[in-house]
Amino acid sequence: MFRLGVRGVSRASNVLWRRSFSAEAAEADQLPKAVDTAGRYAHALYNAAKKTNSLDAVINDVDTLQAMVTTNEDFNEFLINPSLPRIAKVEAITEIVDRSGFSDTFSKFLMVMAENGRTSEASKTLTAFQGIIGAIKGEVVVKVTSTMPLSEWELALLKKKIKQRFFADKPDAELTVETAIDEELLGGLTIQVGDRFMDLSTRTELRKLQEVISQAV
């Protein structure tokens, strides 16, 4: 079980930096729900890393944390669990930052996400950041998650549609498609192209329907 360290959180030493960073990251909290928050946070992290000349270090930090999220189910559950108080997550992230060896830029970025109540977006944000770096390097990785394996024909058609939508000006772009299975989607699929995320799952459609019904009652 992932344990939360209960300790006081001292923000005084970082408050000025966080305010500066939040000037970019806070836009994500003010955007309509239809806009991908993770992508905006990923761009904010990239801009902060460029400004502080720490891009290489941040890239390594992102890869390290993403590996933790992917391989440690308890840690991932901790990040996405909405029932945990925000202060508990801030305390735990502070403890992780203190012992992780992460760069100053990335450490403060994680604290901003925790304080803004955005830890549930962490994995998507890290993936979006990796997509930004890949695009800069000329690499295009498409991550497709579905409820069952897609056929070669379906994957080929999907690649064609993605190229038409996102790379119309780069017809020679080579896409690498990574697939994953998630039965909890119930149907449909999700597509991640760099910092763009499209949720075409039945689960999301049902959630939207439930929200409409609850608002009407």
TrEMBL record:
Where is it mainly found?
membrane
Q: Which residues cross the membrane?
A: none
Subcellular location per UniProt equals:
Membrane
Q: Which GO terms describe its cellular component?
A: membrane
Give yes or no: UniProt keyword Ribonucleoprotein. Answer: no
The alphabetical list of record keywords is: ATP synthesis, Hydrogen ion transport, Ion transport, Membrane, Transport
* Ubl conjugation listed as a keyword: no
Give the Gene Ontology MF terms in alphabetical order: proton-transporting ATP synthase activity, rotational mechanism
Pfam family of the protein (one):
OSCP
HAMAP family linked: ATP_synth_delta_bact
Q: Which family does it belong to?
A: Belongs to the ATPase delta chain family.
Q: Which NCBIfam families match?
A: ATP_synt_delta
Protein name (database record):
ATP synthase subunit O, mitochondrial
